[in-house]
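**Backbone shape codes:**
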Amino acid sequence: MVQNLDNKEIFVTGGAGLIGSFLCDILLKSGYKVFVVDDFSKGQLKNLKHIESKIEIIEADLQDLSQTKKSLSKAKNIFHLASRAYGVGYSSKNHIETLIHNEKITNNLLEVFEVSKPDNLLITSSSCVYMDEGPDLIGERKLFENDPERVNRGYGWAKRFLEQKFLLLSEINNINLKIVRPFNIYGERYRWVGEYSSAIPMLVKRILDDEDPIYAWGSGNQRRSYMHAYDCSRIMLKIMEQRDKNITVNIGTKETVSIAEMVDLICKLSGKKPRIIFDTSKPEGRFIKSSDTKLLNSIFKEKIKTIEIEDGIRRMLGWYKNNF
């Protein structure tokens, strides 16, 4: 059952980021008043320029408790997306740094919300919480069955802690809590972070930069469920508007694309023909990462239409031209 949020004011932490900025667009179109809380360490003001006059932007570093209190103590409806997430090049080498950063934000929010008692809260976890062992098609499994995804284990542990802490807070303070676990989100509002960038922007830039050969990490056979950030954000709003409390749901698709197929698609759409070398000395993570959509489909009660990967890659080619 869909709820009509009584208070039409919604706060979005990380609202200038890849998913967050699309979410702000959709919230505005749905009649909400939007407050963006972002320190712009990864989020970009240019992602919000087209709606800047219609929203309120609060620049705050949520690693700082005083700034967290000042920006969120009166918030009643919150989407929490602020996080430090990079590609496997960073996460595989910086587990502790990633864990500490995310834990600081989680603990500050926990302290503030324990007092302010918000009504509705959606927190963004990750498919990285799942263990490497197990079925190729991943359902909403319980946490703490073995370690999270090994190549991203610092980030995976941070997200597991985030979920558990807020489930406890929800139980104590009777907060309407939603937890989402996105699978491999990409889009043209991505902020380039050099060698630490995620797979799709990394491959797009290397191919359009005319690198030859192209070195791709892993065997190339590893498969991922990809979803455009626009689709992820509209699904998040749909989940937030459900009356049921304590929903935990994957945001992804069953369909997968291998890294080799992704490289071929980018080359085809860009007209480039570099040599491709797959570096098996580099980590590639879980071999197949595909989301079971049963629960998500039961919430939507209809087939979820998403941006096709070919159209999404065309958008990423536009991202390259606009940024480089």
